[in-house]
């Protein structure tokens, strides 16, 4: 529910010609405007000492003593930052970048206006802006100890949750990604943010990854026995791939299940792929020689060398979900998705769009040339047994979208 205008407070941080008119118009509309400032430094000094913060800071982007980007960072450092409203003559690309910075600094954006002297637009936009209710901070769960992580492994409490991948051309489920989870002694779910860092820090990640591989292989084999042609993929670090013993144990996992390794895809992140070129080529080529497929995950989040990518034997490229989210209303994201898809096609790779949650996003990635999708629109991650039941309930393996 929005706060009545008489209770809403705004600071105005604009240049000399626009600050007072904007403040006056806001006050006429019922806003409290206790601070009217004409530079960044004065606002910075006030933020150090002020007791009561406003709901919104109306600010420009360029001042003689600094800019609105600095101000956004200052606001982001606060425990409960007010929202910002950008009023500036800057190019729209600059404004969009400022909005992205605000999001990265966890500062809400109440809107923007490309004509700071058009105070009527500012007031109208702010009249429709509703401050979200305060969110009660969650008490973070304690980090796992090395012993607790080790116990999860030894006691068989690691649990692979799977998220299906759907072929766009036919709406068929053609694979799934295995995501690492665990169960504590009370049966509670241990999520990757608590689990994976401890495993990595204590030299347990290879053993845990092999356990995920075994569970993935079991799931794929069960699907194939029931006539469902579904492949699986697992996330593997470059550190693990550099261990020849790990790679050969991965191969033995498929051999024991009498499963062709081509039914399993190894996913590495883009940042891993940008390590020392000779090492990456050696490690990834070895895994391909053993018969596994190889995917580059989170594509677009790093600083890829296209030459380096062209030297690595990938079979699949996965577009990071941050580019897919709201791509139907963001032309820049849409362009990035299309460029990634075109690159994958040019390199003869399958291209998977991650994080597809709406029909509109689905149509964007389809038009861009993606071959498969993964995300909540298809299905959420779920325990393997539950996912198997879900697959059995589909008609001809097709997802009814």
Automatic annotation (TrEMBL):
Gene3D superfamilies: EAL domain (3.20.20.450). It holds the Pfam family EAL. SMART domains: EAL (SM00052). InterPro entries: CheY-like_superfamily, Cyclic-di-GMP_PDE-like, EAL_dom, EAL_sf. CDD domains: EAL (cd01948). Residues 142-395 form the EAL domain. PANTHER family: CYCLIC DI-GMP PHOSPHODIESTERASE PDEF, SIGNALING PROTEIN YKOW. This is EAL domain-containing protein. It comes from Azohydromonas lata.
């Amino acid at each position: 529910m929005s706060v009545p205008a008489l209770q809403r407070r705004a600071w105005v941080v604009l240049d000399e010609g626009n600050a007072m008119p904007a403040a006056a118009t806001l006050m006429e509309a019922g806003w409290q405007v206790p601070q009217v400032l004409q530079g960044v430094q004065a606002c910075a000094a006030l933020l150090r000492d002020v007791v009561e913060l406003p709901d919104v800071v109306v600010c420009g982007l360029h001042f003689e003593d600094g800019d609105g980007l600095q101000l956004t960072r200052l606001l982001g450092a606060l425990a409960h930052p007010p929202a910002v409203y950008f009023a500036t003559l800057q190019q729209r690309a600059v404004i969009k970048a400022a909005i992205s910075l605000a999001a990265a600094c966890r500062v809400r954006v109440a809107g923007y206006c490309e004509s700071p002297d058009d105070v009527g637009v500012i007031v109208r936009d702010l009249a429709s802006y509703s401050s979200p209710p305060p969110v009660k901070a969650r008490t973070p769960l304690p980090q796992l100890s090395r012993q607790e992580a080790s116990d999860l492994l030894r006691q068989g409490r690691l649990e692979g949750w799977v998220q299906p991948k759907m072929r766009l051309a036919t709406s068929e489920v053609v694979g799934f990604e295995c995501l690492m989870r665990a169960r504590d002694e009370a049966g509670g779910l241990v999520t990757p943010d608590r689990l994976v860092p401890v495993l990595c820090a204590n030299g347990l990640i290879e053993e845990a990854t092999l356990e995920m591989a075994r569970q993935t292989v079991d799931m794929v084999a069960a699907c194939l026995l029931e006539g469902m042609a579904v492949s699986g993929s697992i996330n593997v670090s470059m550190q693990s791939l550099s261990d020849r013993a790990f790679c050969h144990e991965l191969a033995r996992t498929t051999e024991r299940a009498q499963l062709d390794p081509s039914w399993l895809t190894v996913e590495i992140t883009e940042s891993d792929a940008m390590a020392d070129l000779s090492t990456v080529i050696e490690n990834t080529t070895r895994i391909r020689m053993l018969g596994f497929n190889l995917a580059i995950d989170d594509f677009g989040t790093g600083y890829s060398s296209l030459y380096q990518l062209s030297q690595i034997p990938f079979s699949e490229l996965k577009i990071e979900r941050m580019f897919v989210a709201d791509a139907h209303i963001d032309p820049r994201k849409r362009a990035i998705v299309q460029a990634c898809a075109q690159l994958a096609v040019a390199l003869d790779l399958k291209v998977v769009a991650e994080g597809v949650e709406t029909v509109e996003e689905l149509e964007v990635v389809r038009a861009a040339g993606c071959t498969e999708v993964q995300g909540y629109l298809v299905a959420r991650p779920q325990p393997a047994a539950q996912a198997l039941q879900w697959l059995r309930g589909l008609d001809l393996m097709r997802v009814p979208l």
